[in-house]
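Known limitations

Files may contain more than one protein. Parsers should not assume a single record per file. Below, a two-record file is shown to illustrate correct handling: read the sequence, read the token line, then continue until end of file.
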Amino acid sequence: MKDLIQEFKKFVSRGNVIELAVGLIMATYFGAIVKSFVNDIIMPPVGYAIAGVDFAELKLKIADRVLADGTIETITINYGAFINTIITFVIVSAAIFMVVKGYNEFMKKEEAKPEPKPAEPSKEEVLLTEIRDLLKNQ
């Protein structure tokens, strides 16, 4: 059990796990921002442009059901919310695509940079190398 705990501590203390956790947190909040952007900024004008339709309210009524307390519950398919989710997905996908594309271009530029040439040895180093080689040959 002690080995398992030590192995877990080693796993968690790695940089990759921390980076993964930060990335997951950032992605969660990025998704929330995009969802708000779609629902609150993009969809209202789009709905207005097509005769004042609020996509979030688009539903297909299947049936009414009477609950035990006498209230009526309407069972619906909320396809408007599904449309909002698809638009959110497209925007998030486009944003991630642009980030990955930029990262790939940056990496190509880094790979294309020539390796710096090692410094030429000084005259003293060249002379000492020659002396060493002569001594080896004797």
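...continuing to the second record:
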Amino acid sequence: MAQNAKSTIIDKASFSISESFEELTKEDKTYWHNRTPEERLTYMEILRRINYGDKATARLQRVLEIAEGP
């Protein structure tokens, strides 16, 4: 991964909120359609780490339970 969440800087002074993907501008759609699937996934991973912090890489705990039959 070329970038990570710790090296990503977010401009918190300016942002926009949209209710759905229909509100995206043509330029936004064109930008993301021109990205490779790998670039899109990389960006999604960065967003996930920004939103969830260190918890993003924590492993899920597996719990096994033995159920007795009738």
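Parsers that stop after the first record will miss the second one. For reference, the second record is described as follows. The two ends are 51 Å apart (CA to CA).
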